[in-house]
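BUG: 3D viewer hangs when loading the predicted structure for this chain

Environment: internal workstation, default settings.
Expected: structure renders.
Actual: progress bar stalls at 90%.

Input used:
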Amino acid sequence: MITGKNYVGSKLKAAGEKTFKTYNPQLDIENPWVFTEATQGEIEEAVTLAHQAFGTYKNCSGLEKADFLNAIADEVLALGDNLLVQYCSESGFPMGRAEGERGRMVGQLRSFAQMLAEGSWVQAAIDTAIPERVPAPKEDLRKMLVPLGPVVVFGSSNFPFAFSTAGGDTASALAAGCPVIVKSHSMHVGTGEMVASAILKAAQKTNMPEGVFSNLVGGGTTLGTSLVKHPLVKAVGFTGSIRAGRALFDLAAQRPEPIPVFAEMGSVNPVVFLPKALAMNSQKWATAYAGSITLGAGQFCTNPGLLIGIKGAELNKFAEELAKAIEKIEPFCMLHPSMKNSFEEGTSTMMAQKGVSKIAEYQGGAPANYGVQKILTVDGKTFLENKRLSHEVFGPFSILVQCDDEEQLLRIINQLDGQLTGTIIGEPNELKQYNKLIAAMQNRVGRLIFNGVPTGVEVCPAMIHGGPYPASSDSRFTAVGIHAVNRWVRPFSYQNWPNELLPAELQNENPLQILRTLNNIQTKSQVK
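Structure tokens produced before the viewer hung:
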């Protein structure tokens, strides 16, 4: 049952007077539930509880935290179809998408639980003392990763499960040993409240400290600003627009004690089509990219918003086939009327730019909140002269840039801002001729794809979901996969510490049987 209240720790509260409702974009009506925005008092209480919980939670064993994360996954699944129906009513996504994304959320939680149970993720390193070393003795030093403290997670608009209340940021922060305060996204707070109830039920079942998790609701910027500025908050996770992510980043940097903001932001995910690949498989790639551009109404951070090729018969044929393929696809519902309006404004702005023309647009009718896909085109020279053409349009949109030659193509890649992904479509023997292109792409992206589409982000240790700014605020980290935990920890050393007082991860006996670096050797051996 949805209460429309805030979870401050395990307690439901609604002291505030400001309220709002969510929206059902499929039905084009407001949902019936009324949500109460968190007050300053509730914010203060949630952060204070998280700070107090940190003193206990950071010392929980890996197995205890693993039990907690697995219990969250179990409780989410126990919500059954009611959770999926709620998700659909606030997102406009179909049931199949809801089921798939719930599976991803549960899978993420279980992957971090598995990481914790194994234990080597703490990167334990031991350098034993050499007291007789000349000219100076060597001290005993032992290092591992330790949690930062309370983390604020901002739910994303386009992934109500996977990047929101119990999504990757929350799962990785809890895995690190950090209590979490979620700022629920205002477009799907009912979904968030149901997931939050599962997290808190799991916390109670596994005896986690009060305040290890809170879920707060706010429709404007006041809540988020208050949380980021609070002196007891130690890090922030965010998925969304460049404008909002940069605002949070600047706010955190201006604090008396600056804190990290790990923001995954805008990306147009450039795709380069090489001539031989188009000559051999033009139809194949046109069909694949028509599907990728329109998938989920284009509401993916990895949506291919920029297609690039070299002028010629091959590119002309590809453009024609892409237009035919994309005009056959029925439009999809967007997340909210505001998303649809922003999409229309973005495409109109692009169309108004000098030298831009339209090569494809769905011609049939579409309901009120459905995004009608569009493909525009422009020549390479014009693209280089107009920075606006490289900006993201969030929705089923892409622009095809037709370059004069490889040199102009390279100039375009080198001029782009940082991106989450880059893709090269080519034949293997053709790729050998484009070493400069590969190097240029590598400098601009977090993940380089060969002969595929960028939509679809596998949750696994080898995945990098991040990239040079503004794709993310810190390109050294990923927001997906178990290594996302590294955002919420810091390295810490013990010098000459009594063995019995060390954390189990660093004790001589290696009671956890984890992999450690012992005097520069990776081993599970004890310290003799």
